[in-house]
Amino acid sequence: MVADALSVVVRVLVSPDELRRLLVEEARAGLLTRPRELSPKWFYDERGCELFDEITRLPEYYLTRSEREILERRSDEIAERTGARTLIELGSGTSEKTRLLLDALTRHGSLERFVPFDVSEPTLEVSGAAVRKEYPGLDVEPIAGDFERHLDELPSGERRLVAFLGSTIGNLPPDERYAFLAELGRLLGPTDALLLGIDLVKDESRLLAAYNDAAGVTADFNRNVLRVLNRELDAEFEPEAFEHVARWDTEREWVEMRLRSTRAQSVPVPALEAVVELDEGETIRTEISQKFRPELVAEELAAVDLDVAVTWLDSGGDFGLVLAFGRD
Q: Where in the sequence is the domain holding 40, given as residue range(s)?
């Protein structure tokens, strides 16, 4: 079979078999001990991606609209400040918002290469081909990998712009966030830049509404992780036997999503050679979403040799985009 001229070759750093082994490892660590916890990375199978796309369009979910507003206003300035030859997008998905950066960098005349980096090879094949079609002459080099493990595989070169949008950084617990940022600080030099999306601390009611919408889409998204476990690990979770819970942790300044068992349950998970025993009311934490204060973000970045040049806020003061540069 002859490949389409617009198709892309995905560099695969994590295969489906490796992903399954990682899921087994993390599920064993997170489900067979208390308190119980799963990583939010396991939300994003095909159905999970569809549900999240629906979430981004909900009236309660301001994050995507707010970030897009900043990008619409500031992409040309980002292009001017960075002069990026290579744009690397971590957790790229469909790269929908990233078109604003691609357009600005194309107008600026500096962009030579786009590297979408995501865990899903099929998503990268589709989105990479779409970008190649829309931007003739642009080198599109997708990488299928885990940004928590494979940052050292990012392409080298001068004037790289690493975009990490959507406040995905907030899904990493503080120690993992520090390790991730420290690795970026090690990799990025003075001609390289980081564009980081951060959701800001705000009124609790608005935060919780964004993670517990009236239509119940986020609840379905949360329960979808159980469907992933059923399919991949032959587990026997009953998703409807769990309630979606979103709560604000005032001390840590993050939103937690949990699944709360509505009854006592014994759930066989053959891939783990175990049965998960859940009490009525017991929860599984499935996501944290850290909310940020710009001055503290600047301190965190400076501690790992990344210097903030500017932080832009949307018109409502809900969301921020941080542009930082590496050091010698």
A: 1-239+293-328
